[in-house]
């Protein structure tokens, strides 16, 4: 019997940029030391995957290892498999099934044993703290361990991001990378364009990162379409429009290549040049218009996004300006964090970081349009406290968590303020229902031996 532990993912900056293909983007998350999902599991030889949750509203699941036909990677691409099948009916067990299916696709006959597991979690579901990605990572690690397959953490993160496509989403690897590679006392600087990861100390023992759950981000069909529309625009539509401009205008082609090269070396210095170029792309196009402009590119990617509305405008420039803004904010934050080496420099650095966090929310609200009235009201309550450095929507959006940075001594007063001004008027008790998390940077995915843990507890 073994235990795996995965932290909640807290993303400071760099939201909705891990699936961007046309800019060198980056994010700045960490793993929560205080909030986690754990999986108690044992390998099984019966070909069954079985799971139960300590949370009563999540019913048990079971499925056979070979229940779904998955050809190995030598015969079929993973994208071909997931893009040519309907998304499964909602059930939390699908996150386990996705991880297992990906492992069967990747390792073929190397996956012959299943596992039985019990899940416990202090990460609120549908909150923007990546409980779903934590479960995919845990299941991916468990199926490998059950079949005695060695893995690197960075490899598992990449695999897990693709495994989650099984659910119908088309996101990137931000959540899974942070969950796998987080380290205590550090923020994880993830460079998405070249898959580089840098651990940067996050200064200030006296700081606390609080998340307040607003309302569930319903991952039904309508919200899934909203997520996937932004992914399609970021991965395919904007790059295709840029390529069209490059082919038609040599000056644009040269300027784009120069700006992109400069961004890879110094993102802050190059952002103004890139913003001027992004101002040349259309405000919006419909899918029908995109098909007419770029038929070959559309046909090559149609199976990835089959349900997008053809007559609904796909916003381009606002989405691009959000991506670029997050690139700028992450680069500035990394610079300030590296400079905040002494206690006397922490407060100015955190106030500057807080201003970037506020800007990020404004961008998510106005340019990316993933906020809601309830989220905006929660932000107003939090930022009315002058001791809060900054606050923003965290995660995919359309509900979920709001992240706030404040001092350790102000954590409880802020919780009390949010309870009085936000939760109580809605008949809710935020602390009792588990909607409030207080976090500091902790370690990522870890495997614990049950007997050693029990022995340690007995000795303590």
Keywords:
21% strand; four-stranded antiparallel β-sheet; globular; Ribosomal Protein S5, domain 2; 15 helices; 460 residues; alpha+beta; nine-stranded mixed β-sheet
Strand content: 15-25%
Number of strands: 15
Structural class category? alpha+beta
Mean pLDDT: 89
- Topology as a string of helices (H) and strands (E): EEEEHHEHHHEEEHHHEHHEHHHEEHEEEH
The radius of gyration is 22 Å
CATH class of the domain at 2-200 and 443-459: Alpha Beta
Distance between the termini: 22 Å
User: What would you say the CATH architecture of the domain at 2-200 and 443-459 is?
Assistant: 2-Layer Sandwich
Number of helices: 15
Low-confidence stretches: none
> How would you describe the shape?
globular
Relative helix content: 40-55%
CATH topology of the domain at 2-200 and 443-459: Ribosomal Protein S5, domain 2
Biggest pleated sheet? 9 strands, mixed
